[in-house]
Specification:
Four copies of one chain form a homotetramer.
Chain A (H helix, E strand, L loop, with lengths): L1 H12 L1 H13 L8 H13 L3 E4 L15 H13 L4 H6 L7 E6 L2 E11 L14 H4 L15 H17 L5 E9 L8 H5 L9 E8 L5 E9 L1 E10 L15 H12 L10 E10 L9 E10 L2 H21 L3 E10 L2 E2 L2 H14 L4 E5 L8 H10 L3 E8 L16 H17 L3
Parallel strand pairs in A: 3-4, 3-5, 5-13, 6-12
Antiparallel strand pairs in A: 1-2, 2-4, 6-11, 6-13, 7-9, 7-10, 8-9
Chain lengths: ~425, ~425, ~425, ~425
């Protein structure tokens, strides 16, 4: 097992570089579909390491991009990325927010294809600026107002690049193909579908993803089950305005259509196969007190224990929304704003990871997460790989967080990045040598 | 004007016969579309008086019959009518509830066509049986359980026959055509439309109808305005049942579809052109507590100051009902159960009647009803005649009622029938001599 | 273990008597709270066997009786029971529907208290009368129209009496106390609570109940988990009627209050601790199309994976119903119509039963029911016994049903009664000899 | 009638001054409750003319001020008013938005009290800035962004000051008392109630108000009937937020409470006494898609043909809103945002005005407005005066508008101001000389 030792040494060696990179990303956070600077750095690094790199149109299917910002915002952020050092040629090729990157390396010997997925986007959070917050104190807090890496994707991306470097060093002894998927827009579960639709994991035998989380450094959960499938969408109702006093009969009331939809969405039956959820988180309708309201929007989220349950709920929701609009003679459009599949780790890959983790001995606490509950769009990749007969796993890695995810005081112990790099590189190496 | 005197004398002469006939009708009341015995007597009487009589299929359009009882009930009532003395051959020709009758007499000299309309049906009321109630005391209370003439149509029908007799006596001096329309199913405004659809008033120049009402004998309202247009319909929802605990997602909930319709029907806008009303009077849904309900019915009524407003409400209602059904993936059918047009008396005919009433001097109190408010399906006839350029009027005749309409103690002062006969015969005679 | 042999022989010996008794019960079925004849026979039999018998007021708490028929129906059924041979004195003591019976036998030696519970009521079903249905063919089909033992409680009751006889024979060798609970009104889960409230199981260490089910004779499920807690209730809304056209503002609309309640009951949140259900199975409101409806009733059922979840749902439901009534200025009353606790078998007792079943070897198929899903009000007794530190178990016994429960062709292989008697008597004997 | 000639001459003489003043007001528009500069000018002018002037706390009842802007906005606008030339001492006395002014002159001889009411506030409109718009072309367009006199209150205020000047000239020949009411916040019908509550018209015998409108200069409507009573209010719901996926049962949903209120508000019955209206113009609820929404606001407006109908609707609305909140265990507060009474001109005063208008002959088109339909809060003053036995009238004066009210191109023919001044001064003079 001297490759274990080699990987451990490489991970250690890259620690400082990885932390520096993480802090650079932390200082220049970019929200979903605007990761122009981050992706540029990823592209250049992967090319330098000898990977075959695809990005922009080649890896993002425009029709499946969900929750994309307006052209104005995209253009502003492209300009900001360039101003903050991004390669203008690369940025130009990501026009429209196509900020996904895939780096592939085919080894000499035949073997399986292993995919590793990392997310790159930040949150819509104004970062804390006071001395209690290490990034502020040490000068690497966000310089992009309203943008903050408050979910650790800066760490994910830099660990991904470290792993890419480790595996490139080991390439002589590996078989098959390694594939690095750097995904935009994980927040809001908006980005995976567009990469999936371009075939990102069509040829993948093993798929791995990971997330830094609250527990102390040394914690590892590799038996993860129960991602909820989810769909996120907006319904926009358009009616006809009218003076509420003088000619109410002329109006077509969008507020009432939306309110009827919101209430009746709650009546989608509970499902006997497992957990179901539906939430109308926002309803905004109308412009003036004395006008029959002719515009309304509802922001809806559904979840299901399985993708099938979630689809059932979605189909019911569609009927309810369209029926409500018809009742009030409104036009309605439903826009997809995000989505994720349900999912659980493949048992065999779980076992493999457990054995490797035990072997390399860098973690001191193991846990099974039998009902992770939330939604993550790496589940789309997992589902596809598993359907094709491959194996997939998601890991949760302790990072001694300073605050809960999405909090303005979020920070983590960067030593977790070294552990993450070593673990994932070792797993990939194992899978690529058999 | 010695014809005034002649008519007065004839009306007086017929008083006893008319009262006898009214009491016979009162004792054998028949609800809407089951007036087999009543219609048989009307037919035979009109034939005897020399009228050209049409009935059954010739005067009732099946497709426009609303709220017809089941075949079983119709057959039961046909048998009862025969058992109570109706002519079986006539009854047979009214199969399906086609109990309308039209008697026409064309006079030698050319002239206008005058139509007089009388309604024949009783109410779904169990008549009082104690001594305080004159019909019970004097032995002419209903012998048909659950059926009672509690709105005076027994009086209308017998007054109609008296007028037919008076005018047949006068025929030598009259010009044009007189037409007696004996209509079934006025309660629930279900019957006029089916006679209208067969052309009952297509050729009519003057149309008259009347109703006995609460005020004392001697009261007359001939300037009547503001019948509300109305539509009455049932919506039946069919879903899919399911066990509410074990597999709720299999169900398609009709109760919720109907409840959503009922509530949202209230949101049909008030109309700036005048009065609008909508009522869901009945909602019945579901069979068992633990079953997703898969059947529901709502009984709805709309009203509008004008037929146009009522149509607007009806169209909105249709959208709301269909949308609600679609929301819950239910099938829905809407059945017409009744309807009436809006309407007001023609000013010129109002004036004519006023002059005649003053001339014959048998009434001592006159009132204009500028907002009668309710609905009556003679309005369909009035609307049609007025649209064709003719004149129409509805009169309210005081009858010293003993109780409000539809009450089990309803009765009236039968002298009102003589006044009604004399007034209407005189108006018709006037119109047919000019 | 020669007591095993003794019990097997006694069960065999009683087979014919048990079948005869079952057919007698089948022929004279009585619905919930009207089991006057059935209970009379149970009482007389238990007394004869030497049991100390309590019934009527002594075992039924009036305030906790749910879904009791009207006094008229109760009186009719008391008369019918007497006409069909019930002891009039016993029937009189069960006035008001207090048809529960508890028979106790205290053995000489000290020991635990073991309770066995059997249900006695039939279903509201018209039994099949043709030759394809064995009870009809062989002359023991129901003679009480609309009443049928279509859920096997006739079998439960007769098996209970057989077990009572077996244990009375063995009394010399037993220690502690045996308690037979014959419960009325299990259908609709209405009866257990009233016996619980009178302390039926307050002193019980071991509790057993069983149900005959679809699988072939020889099937036994003794590891039963996941009864859903449930509550069943009606909400009755009282408003103020008004003429819908003439004075709608006078009315207080009960139909809309009930419809609003029905829809918003669906919005009770899904619960993160487990399964939740809510169903409005029936809504009836209003009397006439043109009247503002002033009466409405909804029939509601809630279920929860735990009693706590069910209570949460019930409390939300109460708020929604009261709020809806307040919106329309209605009075509302909520009547409890049934209820059951959640529950699962005690693991230790499950193990005990498994060992005994294996030992006596009369079953050939074993199954664990880890999510039984439905509701049974024996769960109230189980919950209480388990809370008091005792053990409780529910068993499902294969009976080769000819049709699903509650079907008009329901029947079963009566040999299952012998297996049930032998099994339960052996378990009780074991528990009472340690 | 040489006072007619005198008034005509004075009105003509003041024309230029009035136009100049109107343009100054037009250039410095101030929205409801922020009329600090306008009121300062009114105060100073009235004092100069010899009126006894009250303002601030003396004429505005704080508890009855509706729809008042935030303290920040009020302070900003006070500063702006001073910067644009308002007297700082006067502005200080109007702190809190108390911008109403009453100027009174008691004449030597005893006589009736005549009140004239003028409104001063502008609209929330960005005025057109191009050459097609005369105020822009001629340099008197608004310099306060988002504020524009687009309803002619600049004209009303300057006409009011002209009339004040005319009557001050005539004071020697007048009897009784003249009272000028300069009201803030007519837009949104928010201001009259607060002046009414301070007794503005408690002693008034004759009340007059007027509005410039679309018809050509020369048009006068003085027989105005049918102001709708109205109430305008916001309902704010506060619930409890929760994660929609993880713990939905923790939440108390405000969006659903508000939606239920919005829909059921539509079910407030139509009223048989006349026009009723209810509109929910705005519903805003929730913050994030995946959060159970814990905040909601609805903006509601009711109208009724009479103040009584409006009160009925308001009371129903209150029940519905409170019931909806109770259903979802929300707290709710209802804030009054505006209101007006129903009303019609006093017939005798109408006649008086008609005679005077005919006498002075400056109008060439007269119209009766029998169903003005909208709402105006001068109706509160009218209702009060009429209840006290006085007479009140509202007049509509043609001003050849260039665009509909509230439009960014609104302007009018300033000659209308001269006609308005002459007419109202003449009426007041007549009433004060009898």
């Amino acid at each position: 097992m001297n490759s274990d030792i080699k990987i451990a040494a490489l991970a250690k060696l890259l620690e400082e570089k990885t932390i520096t990179r993480r802090r650079d990303f932390h200082r220049h956070p970019e929200t979903g579909w605007t990761e122009f600077r981050t992706a540029s750095i990823v592209i250049e690094t992967l090319i330098e390491l000898g990977y075959d790199v695809k990005f922009g149109n080649d890896v993002i299917d425009e029709a499946n991009m969900m929750g994309v910002p307006s052209t104005e915002i995209l253009e502003e952020n492209m300009a900001r990325a360039i101003a903050q050092g991004a390669n203008p040629d690369l940025v130009a090729k990501m026009t429209g927010g196509k900020t996904g990157v895939i780096g592939t390396m085919k080894f000499a010997k035949p073997g399986p294809t292993v995919a590793l997925r990392f997310d790159m986007d930040c949150n819509d959070v104004f970062e804390a600026t006071n001395e209690n917050h290490r990034p502020a104190k040490e000068g690497f807090a966000s310089i992009n107002p309203g943008c903050m890496h408050a979910c650790g994707h800066d760490g994910h991306t830099s660990a991904g690049l470290a792993i890419a470097e480790i595996l490139s060093v080991l390439k002589g002894q590996l078989a098959g193909t390694i594939k690095f998927i750097f995904q935009p827009a994980e927040e809001g579960v908006r980005g995976a579908k567009a990469m999936l639709a371009k075939g990102a994991v069509d040829d993948v035998d093993f798929f791995l993803a990971a997330h830094l989380m609250m527990p102390k450094v040394g914690y590892l959960a590799y038996d993860v089950q129960g991602f909820l499938a989810t769909s996120k969408f907006d319904a926009t109702f358009i009616g006809v305005p009218a003076h509420a006093g003088a000619a109410p009969e002329v109006g077509k009331n969008s507020l009432l259509a939306a309110a009827t939809a919101a209430i009746n969405l709650q009546a989608i039956p509970r499902h006997s196969d497992g957990i179901s959820r539906v939430n109308v988180g926002v309803l905004n309708a109308g412009t003036g007190r004395n006008v029959i309201p002719a515009n309304a929007v509802i922001k809806v989220e559904t979840r299901g224990a399985t993708s099938k349950i979630n689809e059932y709920i979605y189909e019911c929701a569609e009927k309810i929304i369209k029926g409500s609009a018809a009742m009030y003679d409104n036009k309605v459009t439903i826009s997809q704003m995000g989505g994720a599949a349900s999912g659980s780790n493949s048992p065999k890959l779980t076992e493999t990871i457990g054995n490797i983790a035990a072997r390399i001995g860098i973690f001191n606490q193991y846990e099974a997460l039998s009902n992770i509950g939330g939604s993550e769009d790496s589940s789309y990749f997992m589902e596809k790989v598993q359907k094709n007969g491959g194996q997939a796993a998601y890991m949760v890695i302790g990072a001694s967080l300073t605050a809960v995810n999405h909090n303005l005081y979020f920070d983590f112990d960067e030593h977790a990045l070294t552990l993450e790099s070593q673990l994932i590189a070792t797993i990939a190496s194992d899978l690529l040598t058999k």
